[in-house]
Amino acid sequence: MSLPTAASAPVRLLNADHVTELTSLAAELLDIHSSATSPALLADLAHACRRLSRGLRDALRPVDTADGLFVLRGLHIDNTELGPTPGHWSTVGEAGALWDVVLLLVSTLMGTPIAWDGQQDGRFVHNIVPSPGHETVQTGASSSVLLTPHTEDAFHPGRAHLLLLCCMRNHDSIATTAASIRLTKLSDDDVSELTRPVVPILPDDAYEEAQQFGGRPAPVPTLFAGEDGLTLRFDPAYTPLDEADSGYRAAYGRLEDELARVSVAVSLEPGDVLVVDNDMVVHGRVPFTARYDGTDRWLKRASVRVPGRRTRPEAETAEHGYGQAALEAWAS
Length: 332
Description:
24% of the residues lie in helices and 20% in strands. The chain has 8 helices and 14 strands.
């Protein structure tokens, strides 16, 4: 897939009062519970969010346009207080913990935060940093290759409905790419072809345990005609297209071309939160050269389920998910 041209993404600007309200509550929760990973803090999120104002709740409503995304802007991160970008997610510790809690509060207003028992030790906020030895893999720890546009956790039926990426540091203006299926122009024949369950989507390299799962991979449709329009489940780097027939492969290629055509490049600034509808939008990242000197790009990521949402085929409920279990914040 070719690199996108720079384009603007919808922006929602938080006013100063809303920023103070959100960060003050996050600081209070962190002070009470001592750690952003505390089970007691996770259990307290839903109750705490009831204290937030109606105006802030409206600003933090989920995605509601065909773009399938927006940038939440107005939060301010002090680069000097943050400390150096870690070389691996496992060494982050409590760095940026306030922003973990802010991201969890935003996630809770939009739905239910989830985590995975097989990724980043079950943390509800993941740290996305370039890591030595991972430069060319198709995960968030890569750097020197294009991170192919994909649906987050596409292999799993319990994947997030919404994906939140909060920028801690991005001195080099490295762009996140995004493309909405609702902005593409596909023929009826291609849509019909891609709604067939022909090939599976396999677990990505961030899920080593899932890759060893012994169950038979189930074929899944790439597209689904939901009540509000097309949705997609897409991860070409982990889809064995050589197992598909020629008609399906040709339609899949045209979908890739269309997603490239409508793709936008979003260079997040510190404090920006990119909110992506994971059923409508595929996301990726342009290549860059990591320095590993403490100044590299650093994002925090949260995943959200929206209870009662009907945007996926009913058949997904029968999938095994490669043995991976999703954890919910207030059930953990």
